[in-house]
Amino acid sequence: MSDKRTAITINGIVKEFSAGSQMIRVLHGIDAEIRSGELTYLVGESGSGKTTMISIIAGILYPTDGSVSVFGQDIYSLSDNDLVRFRLSNIGFIFQQYNLIPTLTAAENASVPLVAAGMKRDEAVERGRAMLDKLNIADQADKLPRQLSGGQQQRVAIARALVHEPRLVVCDEPTAALDAKSGRRVMDLLREVALAPERTVIIVTHDNRIFDLADRILVMEDGRITHDGEEMPDH
Amino acid sequence: MTWIAIRMLTGDRQKFFGLLFGVAFSALLISQQLTIFINLIERGATAVYNIPTANIWVMDPVSRTPDVALPMPPTALDKVRSVNGVEWASPLLRSGATVRTPEGDLEGVTVVGVDDATLIGLPKKFIQGSREALYEPDAVIIDSVGAAKLFPEGFDPIGVRLELNDRRAVIRGIVDVDPSFTSQVILYTRYSNALAFVPGTRNRMSFILASASDGLTAKQVTTRITEATGLKARTREEFARDGVDFIIENTGIPVNFGITVALGFIVGVAIVGLTFSLFIRDNIKQFGALKAIGVTNNKIRMMVAAQALLVGLVGYGIGILLAAIFIASGAANSPDFKGFYTPWEIPVLTAFVVITMILITGWLALRSVLKTEPAEVFR
Ligand SMILES: Nc1ncnc2c1ncn2[C@@H]1O[C@H](COP(=O)(O)OP(=O)(O)OP(=O)(O)O)[C@@H](O)[C@H]1O
Ligand SMILES: [Mg+2]
Q1: CB B127 within 8 A of CB B170
Q2: B289 to A93: CB separation less than 8 angstroms, yes or no
Q3: Quick one: how far is CA B345 from the chain centroid?
Q4: A51 in ligand 1 pocket by Cβ < 6 Å?
Q5: How many angstroms separate the CA atoms of A149 and B274, rounded?
Q6: Which is it for strands A168-172 and A91-94: parallel, antiparallel or unpaired?
Q7: d(C-alpha B172, C-alpha B134), whole Å
Q8: Residue A196: its pLDDT value, please?
Q9: Band of the pLDDT at A1, cuts 50, 70, 90?
Q10: Which ranges in chain B belong to alpha helices (H)?
Q11: Which of A55, A108, A165, A172 best tests the B interface by mutation, with the highest count of B CBs <10 A?
Q12: Given an 8 Å threshold on Cβ–Cβ distance, is A93 in contact with B373?
């Protein structure tokens, strides 16, 4: 299909962590390509290396070896500051714990990437508000995070991840802190709003209740990709 | 990003007020204590500054301050008068004594005897009575702080008879002077009267007040006086300084105030440091998220700097304001603080202390933010 081009190329990624005097290898030379216009899931048992992998893809964790190319840019050849700037203009982040700023309103929280990029406050907050509208929580725009439910907070976090129209969106366990019903609603919404022909969405999850929403599923086991398909393997 | 940094902080009322309290408390304590210290030790110079006409003080070589003086023989006065460059010279007697009030209270006083003919040494500003009243028999003039000390509030002491070293003295006036370091009651009287009030040997002249002739500086004349008479001569400024130095060297005051100021600083650093660290720790995930999203370390530095600056400025403002109000209202309402003012050096010095405090605590707080890896937000 023409709108599903390769967006991310992962080449021989190795990641080791030091544990005392020893080095523990967590990723064992991973190769993969991830396309735009698709919702790609990264699934696997706890400790299999999903978070490590998505952190490396998102440019927040240096690999021990190998390279990651995001939209044609070899991101780990960039200087530290250029990598930060690359993330700011190209990547949206959604965290398990939302990590909203507790003293800012929903609209202000949603505007953070625009503010960080230097946009004026009023304009940025207006855009944040518009994004909340797309996520059907415009009526919560002036509330503080603690006045919102978990599902609403995660929707604010999604708004923050999308407000600057990044081409790559990464989510680590976005529904883990939510009950089944709101988890499902958040994922439906994420799929609806985030998915676009030019955008790549990668989601790390355990949550088998939402596997059916994926266009593609990569399964990790012990730091290797052991399955790559449109659905989960049968066994 | 600055507004976000500020909102992060001000939205957290508890910690924001905690930080303001810490800085304000320190600034208040430090500036208030330093101000009291400066004003107190400057009282070592009030006896000198209360006599503005004399720019030279002559005394026995061993005399040190207005209150620590060995009397000279009466002949010294003529010797000084004959020194070339001395415009005029007049005797001054300062001596401790005790008074008994009509109520029978005993109180230590300083008797100041001023030249009978010229009354040089008598303060200018009268609250009640006049200079001429000093010529009445047994007349003494009391200082306002002393009057407040000896008599109940609202009591008019004019005409009151005191027993001054077993002799009769009658209060004929009240003068407005800054109190001395010891805040002792001061009774001014004519020199001849003072000799009668204060028993002693032939030598009872504590000081000779003098003035330099036109065209000569006080300093030049003091040198001439010492060369010609062997007496110690000090300019007004030197002798004022001697009084201040004497307090610094001979009392525990500098150490005591120093300890309080140091404590103010330490407590401030502790409160501000702990609260700031708590604030950062509460927000470390948010800072991590900002770093992941794409906020550079430089911008993070600016954010923490903005937060520290806000706390420093507002806290300092509150602290200095409270200290200034305290000093001003004290000076207006209490004889203990009479004449107290806030020298400009105090707010400046306090500002440096606050800046140091903010730099230390801000740096500590910033360190943990900078150390946070953006990858930790996915944990
Ligand atoms: N900073 C680190 N230091 C040392 N070891 C680490 C570090 N981060 C991850 N690991 C180890 O790497 C392995 C993979 O961790 P990772 O978090 O990627 O797994 P995961 O698949 O995301 O697991 P979960 O589903 O529990 O989140 C684990 O064994 C973990 O202990
Ligand atoms: Mg994980």
Answers
A1: no
A2: yes
A3: 13
A4: yes
A5: 31
A6: parallel
A7: 7
A8: 86
A9: very low
A10: 2-10, 13-42, 46-49, 75-81, 144-150, 191-197, 218-229, 236-250, 253-282, 284-293, 297-333, 345-371
A11: A55
A12: no
Residue B295's identity, in one-letter code, is V
> Which three-class secondary structure state does DSSP give residue B347?
helix
Residue B139 has what pLDDT?
92
| CA A49 to ligand 1 centroid distance, Å | 6
pLDDT category of residue A4 using cuts at 50, 70 and 90: low
Q: Quick check: B7 and A85 CB within 8 A? A: no
Contacts A206 to B, Cβ<8 Å: none
| Confidence at residue A235, expressed as pLDDT on a 0 to 100 scale | 59
Count the alpha carbons within 13 Å of B91 in the hemisphere toward its beta carbon.
25
Nearest to A76 by CA among A91, A57, A89, A94: A57
Rounded Cα–Cα distance for residues B294 and A88 (Å): 4
DSSP A225: E
Q: How many CB atoms lie within 10 A of CB B346?
A: 22
Say if A97 is an interface residue toward chain B (CB within 8 Å).
yes
B71/B369 Cα distance (integer angstroms): 70
DSSP structure class, residue A230: S
Exposed / middle / buried, residue B103 (Cβ in 10 Å: 0-12, 13-18, 19+):
exposed
The CA distances from residue B149 to A48, A146, B124, B157, B335, in Å, are: 85, 61, 21, 11, 9
Q: Is the CB of A109 under 6 A from ligand 1?
A: no
B/e letters for A207-217, b = 16+ CB within 10 Å, e = fewer, are beebeebbebb
Of the ligands numbered here, which is closest to the C-alpha atom of A62? 1
Distance from CA of A52 to the nearest CA of B (A): 8
Beta bridge partners of A11: A67
Question: What mean pLDDT comes out for the span B127-136?
Answer: 89
Which of the pair, B80 or B105, is modelled with greater confidence?
Answer: B80
Are B250 and B73 spatial neighbours (Cβ–Cβ below 8 Å)? no
Residues in chain B: 379
Q: What are B251's two structure tokens?
A: 């009392």
The interface pTM score, or ipTM, of the predicted complex is 0.91
Concatenating the DSSP letter of every residue in B216-278 gives S-HHHHHHHHHHHH--EEEEHHHHHHHHHHHHHHHSSHHHHHHHHHHHHHHHHHHHHHHHHHH
Size of interface A-B (CB pairs under 8 A): 85
* Ligand that lies nearest to the alpha carbon of residue A48, given by its number in the listed order: 1
Distance (Å, rounded) from C-alpha B68 to C-alpha B211?
22
Residues 6 or more apart from B332 whose CB is under 8 A from it? none
Confirm if B357 and B268 have CB atoms less than 8 A apart.
Answer: yes
Q: How far apart are the C-alpha atoms of B284 and B3, rounded to whole Å?
A: 18
